[in-house]
Specification:
The chain has 456 residues and is α/β, with parallel strands linked by helices. The protein has 21 helices and 13 strands. The chain has helices at residues 37-43, 65-81, 102-110, 125-132, 140-145, 147-150, 155-160, 184-189, 198-210, 223-238, 240-247, 257-271, 288-294, 306-314, 316-321, 358-368, 372-380, 400-412, 420-423, 426-441, 446-454; strands at residues 56-62, 91-97, 118-121, 162-163, 166-167, 170-171, 176-183, 214-217, 298-304, 323-326, 341-344, 348-351, 416-418. The strands form 3 sheets. Strands 7, 8, 9, 10, 11 and 13 form a 6-stranded mixed sheet that branches. The chain has a 5-stranded mixed sheet with strand order 2-1-3-12-6.
């Protein structure tokens, strides 16, 4: 969940291999704009509508080796063993799509009779339109009938893939919650503790600014890095239901008092110097915030779990000796559960209703996505899968201590809120990010943010 270098809506992975998909700035592209449906479909490895074998289940996925290899192995296992009982062989086939073009090609295909049978997605806003158009299979009855399958997933992650309380996606990758990373060596030497409350955080800001150290690294040139602050503060102040109402399109949801209070808290932090004075010119893609943090010029960094791998790759001594992490602090008097997390629960596979092999497609997801073999390959690749009862198996994972900590944090979380820019429709997400960046930069008041989004 890899980010595109200019993307405010990244698919950010735990590495810094950038070049992914931007969904927040995409529009509905016309068929003519992409030189025809058949051209787009051909780019995905097949011809025009009706070309494929009716007994082939096509799985659209990204051309990302970490995901592709375990998926292809799962497909091979399924193809070797599946018997639909009708005397006809059904074959699953992976269709890797370039990450830069994935969302555009998927949109075009979903508007034709040449839809994939199963397709990779981010949940939330990335599939909401398809759900509203009745293009996807409601997986709820299958999960209710097979409770062992349903219970094989961590509930907070499986539930994060819901649309209007119904399941349209099955987890397929690892989890990436947002953590508050901090320099434990610096904290210990200066007699400080990671913040347990928002008041503690404010005190730390004042302490570190007094020491001439920037309290928090922030790549403010990319608005999605700032969004993490709003997401957690709203969650801690008002609870996960505040944003859920926004995602569900409830009237007046942006006017919840928790939104305004969170934005006012952000301005308090900015004015206190929490993010330094030039955060608006620091870019995520150049690694500026990571470098600031690793060099000891900043004490903390709020970021997804990929921060750990980035630091391990780019600053291994810092990652091994100084890097520590904690959950976001609670807000005194807030309604939110301090164990709740935000970020990227995982990615999902969804099934299209127009598939000639819906039952076989669902059976593939049932047999393979939480299988021991598939999960083991994800762990070996460094992922932390969203599967239940996994702590013991993670002891053999690369960087096992960190993997287990992430897993247990999500396991204990009552809710796992999908990053807002992925949960919302792209046009609303873009407006939100633009307005939030203006709040951070002092060009828009919290009240003006609420008014603008309320009228969107």
């Amino acid at each position: 969940m890899t980010p595109k270098k200019s993307s405010p809506f990244p698919f950010r992975t735990m590495g810094r291999t950038l070049g992914g998909v931007s969904l927040s700035r995409r529009g509905l592209l016309s068929i003519a704009g992409l030189a025809g449906v058949s051209a787009a479909a051909a780019a995905c490895g097949r011809g025009g509508p009706g070309d494929r074998n009716s007994n082939t289940i096509e799985v659209w996925t990204l051309q990302e080796q970490e995901q592709l290899e375990p998926l292809e192995n799962a497909i091979a296992r399924f193809n070797d063993s599946y018997d639909g009982g009708d005397g006809e062989d059904v074959t699953v086939e992976a269709v890797p799509v370039n990450q830069d073009n994935y969302s555009d090609q998927l949109q075009v295909a979903m508007g034709t009779n040449n839809r994939p049978d199963i397709f990779f997605n981010w949940g939330g806003g990335s599939i909401r339109r398809y759900v509203e158009q009745d293009l996807l299979v409601d997986l709820t009855p299958y999960l209710e009938e097979d409770t062992a399958w349903r219970d094989s997933w961590l509930p907070s992650v499986l539930n994060a893939g819901q649309i209007n309380g119904r399941y349209y996606g099955i987890p397929l990758r690892g989890m990436q919650p947002v953590l508050l990373f901090y320099n434990q060596t610096m904290f210990q030497e200066m007699g400080q503790q990671p913040p347990a409350t928002y008041d503690d955080l404010v005190n730390l800001v004042n302490f570190f600014t007094g020491q001439g150290i920037q309290p928090v690294a922030l790549a403010g040139l990319d608005a999605w890095t700032e969004l993490m602050w709003l997401e957690y503060l709203v969650d801690r102040i008002g609870g996960a239901e505040v944003f859920q109402a926004i995602a569900d399109g409830e009237e007046g949801a942006w006017g919840h008092p928790a939104i305004l209070q969170a934005l006012q808290s952000i301005r308090e932090l900015v004015d206190a110097g929490a993010f330094g004075t030039n955060f608006s010119s620091v870019a995520w893609t150049s690694g500026g915030a990571d470098t600031l943090f690793a060099s000891g010029e900043a004490a903390m960094h709020l970021m997804g779990t990929w921060e750990y791998t980035n630091q391990l790759n780019d600053n291994p001594d810092f990652a091994r000796n100084d890097l520590a992490y904690a959950n976001f602090p609670q807000v005194s008097g807030g309604a939110g559960d301090p164990a709740a997390v935000v970020g990227n629960p995982t990615n999902y596979f969804s099934v299209t209703r127009s598939s000639n092999n819906v039952e076989a497609a669902v059976e593939f997801l049932r047999q393979q996505m939480s299988s021991d073999e598939y999960v083991g390959e994800l762990i070996e690749a460094g992922d932390v899968p969203a599967v239940a009862d996994l702590t013991e198996r993670l002891q053999s994972a690369p960087n096992a201590e960190f993997a287990i900590a992430v897993y247990e944090m999500v396991q204990q979380a009552p809710t796992f809120t999908l990053s807002w820019d992925q949960a919302l429709e792209p046009d609303v997400a873009e407006l939100m990010l633009d307005c939030l960046q203006e709040v951070f930069n002092g060009d828009r008041t919290p009240e003006e943010f609420v008014e603008e989004l309320s009228n969107a």
